[in-house]
Amino acid sequence: MSDYEHCDDDDSINESSPPLTTDDDDDDDDDDDEDLDDDSVLLALDTNVGNSIRQRPDGMDMDDDYPFKVLTTEDIMRYMNDTIKEVNTVVQLPQTITRILLNHFKWDKEKLYEKYYDGDQTQLFHDAHIVNPNYRPIKKPIYHANEFCIICCVEYPSSLMTGLGCEHRFCRECWTNYLTTKIMEEGQGQSICCAAHNCDILVDDQTVFNLVNDPKVKLRYQHLITNSFVECNRLLRWCPKPECSRVIQVEYVAFRPVKCYCGKVFCVLCSEDWHEPIKCDLLKKWKKKCDDDSETSNWIAANTKECPKCQVTIEKDGGCNHMPTFVGSVLDPGNPHGSSWYNCNRYDEDEAKAARDAQERSRSALQRYLFYCNRYMNHMQSLKFEHKLYELVKAKMEEMQQHNMSWIEVQFLKKAVDVLCQCRQTLMYTYVFAYYLIKNNQSIIFEDNQRDLESATEKLSEYLEREITGDNITVIKQKVQDKHRYCESRRRALLDHVQEGYDKDIWEYQL
């Protein structure tokens, strides 16, 4: 007879069904105090760290038609549990099993419904590494009061042995040590498998909370589950600021900026700092180019030669062509049958032209890269400096208030620094965009807009660094206000032109 029998429809497991991790003996009553209610497993710990920020933070410079929410840890847990309960009302499974299934489908509810009702359920639970809860195990009679734990090789009373639906049973102490190691040392949460060798059945949340007593381990497990929930959910993004633990929830994924309550503005698609006008794929390519050794290779090709015997790379900065290396070979030994295109008494026109062309291409590519990279880095450094301007501006604002100006009247300085930082960041990424852009009529318009914005940005930076006195305060205020408004308009014009190019598919790239 099979170890499992199919449950009838009226007998199917629901939220009130006993968990699969309870003991198979008659002493389960002793463990009732340790078992958590299935509805409260995931929120069993105190995660009250504050209310979520439902409104958009001040100072946004982004589209108002792209809604999002800033969630705290408590909000994330509540959102996860609400999702589990919503799905559970449809599939009628224990909530901890529902969470594993949702995680398997990356929290795509519709896909779970489709596979659960229209697909092969046996295959579904097998792929999710869960014992099918619709097949209830038949309890085997226990003929001995003691059972043998194959981990610690000790016999224990059956009341001290437990296991999952796969029926691999071990003593509670071994289970606790095993789970603690997986959680604290290996950082596993939703991927902890049964302790039995080669058994891939996943440990459910209720088992963890029943067997682990250390609050630190429980808290760490809850954090791991939360991280997994956020990482798997395509509509959630962690704030990339290291000290921030908030999450951004969006209604749909698009190339849009979002702003966390901590002030961090980042891209929804790639979680990098907001990088308009450059798209995520080109930015990734640029960062890789800056990080790897490709440009070092270009410089070597443009400025050095290899020894024909030992292949040591040599940079020649003067003297004759007879340059001995450590192995005694020379770059141009005067041998008419040498491997170099130049010999003391023989000149090979074809080889010489090919070598010069290759070297010239390397030099040209290197110079082009350095042109755009230097300007990219210059604006990056300037942006870091402009952020320090906030402290300087704060002191200037206090000084201006001593010249009979109100707090509201001096806010133009802070606004000007905000605009200056936005322009610096935009200009920084325009040079990445320009590096990959193929020259055409539209690229010329783009470069004109870029030049106008850069000129206005430098002028605004100059105004903000001027000394403010009682005599020039009115003039400085007018100049700063006019210039930051002009910078805003030029920045918008540049970005609108780039977006128009995206919409009409007129940009071409050299990759």
TrEMBL record:
<keyword id="KW-0862">Zinc</keyword>
<feature type="domain" description="RING-type">
    <location>
        <begin position="145"/>
        <end position="377"/>
    </location>
</feature>
<keyword id="KW-0677">Repeat</keyword>
<dbReference type="GO" id="GO:0061630">
    <property type="term" value="F:ubiquitin protein ligase activity"/>
</dbReference>
<dbReference type="GO" id="GO:0008270">
    <property type="term" value="F:zinc ion binding"/>
</dbReference>
<dbReference type="InterPro" id="IPR045840">
    <property type="entry name" value="Ariadne"/>
</dbReference>
<dbReference type="Pfam" id="PF19422">
    <property type="entry name" value="Ariadne"/>
</dbReference>
<dbReference type="Pfam" id="PF21235">
    <property type="entry name" value="UBA_ARI1"/>
</dbReference>
<keyword id="KW-0833">Ubl conjugation pathway</keyword>
<feature type="compositionally biased region" description="Acidic residues">
    <location>
        <begin position="1"/>
        <end position="13"/>
    </location>
</feature>
<comment type="similarity">
    <text>Belongs to the RBR family. Ariadne subfamily.</text>
</comment>
<feature type="compositionally biased region" description="Acidic residues">
    <location>
        <begin position="22"/>
        <end position="38"/>
    </location>
</feature>
<dbReference type="Pfam" id="PF01485">
    <property type="entry name" value="IBR"/>
</dbReference>
<dbReference type="InterPro" id="IPR013083">
    <property type="entry name" value="Znf_RING/FYVE/PHD"/>
</dbReference>
<dbReference type="InterPro" id="IPR048962">
    <property type="entry name" value="ARIH1-like_UBL"/>
</dbReference>
<dbReference type="GO" id="GO:0016567">
    <property type="term" value="P:protein ubiquitination"/>
</dbReference>
<dbReference type="InterPro" id="IPR002867">
    <property type="entry name" value="IBR_dom"/>
</dbReference>
<dbReference type="InterPro" id="IPR031127">
    <property type="entry name" value="E3_UB_ligase_RBR"/>
</dbReference>
<dbReference type="InterPro" id="IPR001841">
    <property type="entry name" value="Znf_RING"/>
</dbReference>
<keyword id="KW-0863">Zinc-finger</keyword>
<dbReference type="InterPro" id="IPR044066">
    <property type="entry name" value="TRIAD_supradom"/>
</dbReference>
<feature type="region of interest" description="Disordered">
    <location>
        <begin position="1"/>
        <end position="38"/>
    </location>
</feature>
<keyword id="KW-0808">Transferase</keyword>
<protein>
    <recommendedName>
        <fullName>RBR-type E3 ubiquitin transferase</fullName>
        <ecNumber>2.3.2.31</ecNumber>
    </recommendedName>
</protein>
<keyword id="KW-0479">Metal-binding</keyword>
<feature type="domain" description="RING-type">
    <location>
        <begin position="149"/>
        <end position="198"/>
    </location>
</feature>
